[in-house]
Amino acid sequence: MSDRVATEFTGPHTFASDNYSGASPEILAALAAVNVGHDRAYGADSETQRLQTLVAEHFGTGATAFPVFNGTGANVVGLLSMLPPWGAVICSATAHIHTDEGGAPEKAGIKLLTVPTPDGKLTPELIATQAWGYGDEHRAQPLAVYLTQSSELGTLYTPEEIAAITQYSHAAGMRVYVDGARLANAAAALDLPLRAFTRDVGVDVVSFGGTKNGALGAEAIVVLDPQAATGLPYLRKHRMQLASKMRFVSAQLTALLTDELFLRNARAANAAAARLRAGVEAGLADGSIQGVTFTQPTQVNAVFATLPPGVADELRRDFHFYDWNSATGEVRWMCSFDTTDSDVDAFVAAIARSTTALAG
Amino acid sequence: MSDRVATEFTGPHTFASDNYSGASPEILAALAAVNVGHDRAYGADSETQRLQTLVAEHFGTGATAFPVFNGTGANVVGLLSMLPPWGAVICSATAHIHTDEGGAPEKAGIKLLTVPTPDGKLTPELIATQAWGYGDEHRAQPLAVYLTQSSELGTLYTPEEIAAITQYSHAAGMRVYVDGARLANAAAALDLPLRAFTRDVGVDVVSFGGTKNGALGAEAIVVLDPQAATGLPYLRKHRMQLASKMRFVSAQLTALLTDELFLRNARAANAAAARLRAGVEAGLADGSIQGVTFTQPTQVNAVFATLPPGVADELRRDFHFYDWNSATGEVRWMCSFDTTDSDVDAFVAAIARSTTALAG
Amino acid sequence: MSDRVATEFTGPHTFASDNYSGASPEILAALAAVNVGHDRAYGADSETQRLQTLVAEHFGTGATAFPVFNGTGANVVGLLSMLPPWGAVICSATAHIHTDEGGAPEKAGIKLLTVPTPDGKLTPELIATQAWGYGDEHRAQPLAVYLTQSSELGTLYTPEEIAAITQYSHAAGMRVYVDGARLANAAAALDLPLRAFTRDVGVDVVSFGGTKNGALGAEAIVVLDPQAATGLPYLRKHRMQLASKMRFVSAQLTALLTDELFLRNARAANAAAARLRAGVEAGLADGSIQGVTFTQPTQVNAVFATLPPGVADELRRDFHFYDWNSATGEVRWMCSFDTTDSDVDAFVAAIARSTTALAG
Amino acid sequence: MSDRVATEFTGPHTFASDNYSGASPEILAALAAVNVGHDRAYGADSETQRLQTLVAEHFGTGATAFPVFNGTGANVVGLLSMLPPWGAVICSATAHIHTDEGGAPEKAGIKLLTVPTPDGKLTPELIATQAWGYGDEHRAQPLAVYLTQSSELGTLYTPEEIAAITQYSHAAGMRVYVDGARLANAAAALDLPLRAFTRDVGVDVVSFGGTKNGALGAEAIVVLDPQAATGLPYLRKHRMQLASKMRFVSAQLTALLTDELFLRNARAANAAAARLRAGVEAGLADGSIQGVTFTQPTQVNAVFATLPPGVADELRRDFHFYDWNSATGEVRWMCSFDTTDSDVDAFVAAIARSTTALAG
């Protein structure tokens, strides 16, 4: 194993990102299971048809899936299908499409109208700050709203909050796209079916994320209101997101949607984050951990905290994680489907050692 | 198996495309082998580092690989890295980037200057018909040449032919990109190391194709002359071709480059096409097959032939393949790494039955 | 004047292009006439309203004009308004959008499907060679046809020819755009109202060219079928073709459309070309001109001819014109609205001197 | 005149925008003066050469001008010439390129990184909030800074302020572009040569605006550091900003740069705004005007003020101007080169009447 895992990791698991983890065994098994003989390419294969059936079961009759390679591809192609050329997208200032896609939306000609938020979540009032200028040719027209569920800051929209957004947005003439790179974590935390907080509350198009939840590399654009999206086969192809051996992408998604694997994986990741949070809180309570403050609620699989100076570096001798805001000392600890209790406990102990050592 | 393979296939293997086949067992095994614990994302993982080592072994010291998801992504991102914004690409009228990418190059702002060819292959003389207008702001500047090796018509460039092209092109101020979706088939047919007909003969950037040669979905942009390509990490990211769990893409490519799997697979596909060709030729010689003519030499894994009217439909009752030019009755028969001798023999027999039936 | 006109011109008029000429006095007068006080910007001014009235008179009730800065802007913005993102444009291989716009359509994401033609003119049969692949996501969808009237080769479509094209195209699901940079020359040559060979024969959108016909810089996208074009105000703005002081663009066009100035100018240019052609033909007949052959009919204001080697250089000592195909010695002689009889006669005499001298 | 000026204007001059005004007579005269015979197209004419000489005189030896049609075209093409494909632009949240170009930068693939400012002006500290993430492929790379001089809010950078910005930006690896749609107003207000607050303080590329300062429609991208800009002729052409009869664009700019017409016009506009401000301040002092507050200093030709509810509507019965922020009642009053003292005095009187009427 040593030639596969970077030597800086003393343990097999990190808190850097849920894309540092590998794949669930069920998903590797699914790849092997579909690896039988020949099948049509570009999505005309039978596994992709099975995926449609499963997607309709989970998201509602008529929901259709367009498998793509990654989250950025899902977001950009999904949004393109919902907008005329002069359409712009309202999103949070923390939106993945704005902060972490290298400018991919703009390369596809999409202007983003960003709104600062305290917790990464939009509301009708916040959206309204950008929902104006209709008919003014000097303003890119706000015609779609982009939400991330669960958000980049690990926070969660309730179904009611999403319903309020879709009602407001539709009334204003805008469609609603949900970036579901971590949709499963939301479903697990809300303990609701996928459709309950997407299709049933007015979301027009959602991405169902596999990669961050135990897949190797698989996402699907799921169209919930067929009136909302046009030309997806063409857009996906010419934006270079069309897999030829699509059965291998679809199989990852069907495996996730079979026997609730997507929920089991997400629950495990959420639980690990909850355990991590609880462990740190306990340490703060009994004094074994000092100087750590949380900057966001822990609702899914991410913990955002601020560390005293020097602690992050100390911790990184054994555990890998990202800075979120180096100016303030805010860090992000992400848990994956395979993060174990002992991983978490070891990390909590390390946090205790580091903060105590540096505190005094 | 019945729910995985379309029922119109009576045999497990088709002659439709080398992306109808599945994956080599070695490649699935490689995915399982890298599925150990956590590793850095976005290409900073150790498997991607191993890939660099293997790529340097095969393509020469200093050659660097940028894994991407599909051939269209490799072509467009590779070409973008070689061109200023006003650069255009000279290519054959049969070029995949022109005929089969849904306009993806144009969506990325790249203008193609196409040249008709008799056999899908460019030559310095043919390239010269478009290599003019330098300094004329009204003309998109021809600054790159795109070749496909082996070509869309299943034909092959010798190393000397490529050298002539690169010498001409470089002297004219153009860089040379080789679409290597079927590079392995060329290597197998030429019986030469990969570098012998790419790096060693002046090719600047080449894509190494895995998907059509037994991978699930993996291609790499390989930069042979670092002076030729700029900004690839950024271009790959904002053109949506950056895999987060890149180890799973790299592992497919390292598996192909280990123990010559890429050659074994390609030789098998080439041999199947040769057997198919020979079988049909034998049938034509002894009269058991009538009215079939070949439109291109069979140099790798594709056979292009013209069938008498009605024969394609008859054959399609049992075997799947594509029309190439319905006006003329030209069809394309593609062999994959897993096409067996009995697949081929059964197909030849069916061709005999169909042509005889309809002729008589 | 000497500091304004390049010293290589011994005469004030050239045969290089109809954009070498200046502006009709009526148009300068129109600019002065609208230069009164303040008026709304961006097309809400009263002169732009007058233009709409004149355009409706000439092109038919309901025809609407969108003034833009240049022909490339008209073409690209016009085509964008007629296409979904996956739409491609069928055009002649000599089309201005393909040969002379520096790749502007591709920069706007438009793929061109070119068709070789003998005389720069498309026909239903020629268009049909590219009108296929509908529904195939791998093929940019042919959804618009682009014609140039009068063509880049100075040839002319009859109304019947255009009607045949629009009928064919509409039946195939394609819209028809006419590049009218030299529309006036066509109207003059056909001796028909503008609507007779555009709106009345099914053209969906046409550009009305001013710049090549005595304006300073003014073109209008004219929408003939409102169903055919969507979002023009937005497209024009974000493609940077929206004039703030639009009255000064509109005034050039209203001046052209008033008292048939556009026809007077075009007739003059056409007549000059006819005179030039006749003069050369007479010279060929009486032997005073040798070795010149015409490559296209002279139907409007351009003469295309092949000159013996060395003659072009000799002629260029006094007269400026462009090579059209240096390999064959083909040149283009363009006449403008202000090309006089004596200009033409002097040129004919020079051609006689040059060809005779070099002939020996 | 009645058919040219919208009937809602009782006076010939408005306070809506400096693009509501017409053209200086000197500029119309310049158009007539260059309208002599034929001259080369696309900028090879002698008037464009004269422009280069004048630009070098005003901006420094080696400064080169690229005339374009409008400010949006200058900004986008100028920025494109300064950036690699992965480059992003740091700008104020009030930047014209962000608020008023319909998304044109994004259509050209440029991502904007916006910074809130109190007065429309950037500072090194403000720029630094976005000048990070270098080398991170997930972040569009901040490689240019965009300033507007004078700003969208009518505020002014001193040469020292610009020098601080260019020093900071260059040290951080970023080039500096100045949107000079109202550069002349800045020059007039600063009472400095154009080069003193552009070239001499490190600005790399600046647009010289004519349209808002008495031209019909003419702007020039002026390259001050040739190392900073690449490919402008190609970029201008394929972004559809290349005028064929360029002498008519250049003549407008040469006229402005001759005998300081650009300064005379700008001084007039600035003086009118100063008079307007002073008149309102006097009214506030003596009580004849009530409830009006200024939201920005009046440094050039714009006055930004907040009006009590209902006053704007009342005023608009006779005077045209724009709302700036309808939520707060903020309006913008722009003065043009042709705004007279009596225009201003009449407006001040109307303000007095409106505010008094509604207050009492």
From TrEMBL, chains A, B, C, D:
Q: Which cofactors is this protein said to need?
A: pyridoxal 5'-phosphate
| GO terms assigned for molecular function | lyase activity
**Residues in Aromatic amino acid beta-eliminating lyase/threonine aldolase domain copies:** 15-280
Keyword Lipoprotein in the entry? The reply is no
**One Pfam family linked to the record:** Beta_elim_lyase
Query: Example GO biological process term?
Result: amino acid metabolic process
The yes or no answer to whether the keyword Cell inner membrane is present is: no
- Which InterPro entries does its entry note? ArAA_b-elim_lyase/Thr_aldolase, PyrdxlP-dep_Trfase, PyrdxlP-dep_Trfase_major, PyrdxlP-dep_Trfase_small
Transmembrane segment boundaries: none
Tell me which UniProt keywords the record has, alphabetically. Answer: Pyridoxal phosphate
PANTHER family on file: L-THREONINE ALDOLASE-RELATED (PTHR48097), LOW SPECIFICITY L-THREONINE ALDOLASE (PTHR48097:SF5)
Q: Which family does it belong to?
A: Belongs to the threonine aldolase family.
Q: What is this protein called?
A: Threonine aldolase
Question: What is the source species?
Answer: Gordonia jinhuaensis
